Amino acid sequence: MRKVFLQGYGTALPKQTVHFGKQTRYRISPDENQLDLAVQAARNALTNAKMTVEDIDCIVSASAVGIQPIPCTAALIHEQLAKGTDIPALDINTTCTSFITALDLISYPLVAGRYHNILIVSSEVGSLALNPKQKESFELFSDGAAAMIFGQRQDSQSGIIDSIQKTWSEGAHATEIRAGLSAVHPKTYSEVTKEEFMFDMKGKQILSLSVKKLPQLFHHFLTKNGMTAADLDFVIPHQASRAMPLVMEKLGIKPQQFIDLISEYGNMVSASVPFAFCQALRKKRIQKGDKVLLMGTAAGLTTNMLLLQL
Amino acid sequence: MRKVFLQGYGTALPKQTVHFGKQTRYRISPDENQLDLAVQAARNALTNAKMTVEDIDCIVSASAVGIQPIPCTAALIHEQLAKGTDIPALDINTTCTSFITALDLISYPLVAGRYHNILIVSSEVGSLALNPKQKESFELFSDGAAAMIFGQRQDSQSGIIDSIQKTWSEGAHATEIRAGLSAVHPKTYSEVTKEEFMFDMKGKQILSLSVKKLPQLFHHFLTKNGMTAADLDFVIPHQASRAMPLVMEKLGIKPQQFIDLISEYGNMVSASVPFAFCQALRKKRIQKGDKVLLMGTAAGLTTNMLLLQL
Question: Could you give the domains of chain A?
Fold first, then answer.
């Protein structure tokens, strides 16, 4: 077990909501931006942990889409939160599962004693890139941010029991924003090309690939850890779409075993998993000692599973 | 010592060069792109290592600027190189020092046995975003890619002796591409705003901050490892600018101790460090058993140092 433990958590949401039927989505106003959300979530996490930024020795931004092409998003968060310090800042990205990948990866230097308290921030403002013509994604995404602080202690009962990541690039183009970086430069933006700069999600393709690949990986992962789905105290899935509960059912996870925030909050891309994690903690649906599985599929197609003893 | 060892390396360059006085720069033609360079470098590294992609169990893209906003760059490299496999793919980004950060970070799960052979690919086509009005950066950058494969073996004499990363966000705006992602969406691109989508480097500010911060960190890092600059067999610095040799001199590193490719190849952003590493290996300026320091400053301002016993 990688003996890391949760020290604090926080979230941030835009002021404005929009509604599609009974679905609520959070969308930034012109006076809000990704950096504000990221910094607010991070400050809330520090407050919740009763820490100041000086207690942190690594700042990780784990978001799908960054704030600027250069520098990395973590450096811009650092500027708001930690200017004057020399805390290292870096970005880790696997799109929607960036938070899980970041926690997974950074737990190794954490338990090795390289870092002692790490702050992971996921922030997204996907609403800027939604295509009104693609109802499925246009009505699904929310903006938001979540931050969590993890520490390390040898005598901790908490920790990462196991984790796994797989990428199946058959799905590399199932979720995309194709234009905006080096493949298609912003200088080509026009009324004709503008949809290339927008979110494009082939929901059926993702669901079909996920349903084909996930059950096997899920059962392999549980078996490897001597568990069945019933042994999981709680599951925090990426809030991918309204089909998520069906995927959970297919995996043998009961409704009371997982958190479903799709109607209330939609899909916040990378911020979904930590946001749902924070909500589960706030609502005391999980508590100390629980075995909690973070899992999700991301553009790539990438899947992460991380089993945490809280 | 984190017992990782180099298994293979490869580079890729665009066909076309441009010249500024005696300075040679590599720039992609319309029929070349970042993905091609990344994949070519990765294939060359696999060949050099006498491996196939099935031997790799983690693909890391360590680039400053990605190919698409979604998915992450590693997933797109995966599609070209490893489609049909389930090798995990992820991006790690600290701009110019992304390669060092990636090697540093991923070495922990590598030595923990989570991964066995990891491929790190850095690729950049900065030429797409250069501002002809800013001579300093316009004449400095090259496009290119470099890939390296590292393995893990307990009985290895090779490994990472120590590493350090610091971010000083006083320099967060000293090197930027401000527009293109969430801070300034491509829809705002126009003749008036176009420079916001271009590279903007305040060379003097970077140099002044580096010269203020680097020597102290460098000596702290060496002292911590019971070394002086003279004990380093070789230094592979980020090929930041034509001022790089002056910084080396200030740190007490002799001309024969470091590799300087600025005139021949320019600054390839994240690809510079691994490209220079590959050149030093090819030219046999470093060999088995050598103590080699990888170091660089990146937008952020971030500094990385990683001491490797080859």
Answer: 4-156 (3.40.47.10), 160-309 (3.40.47.10)
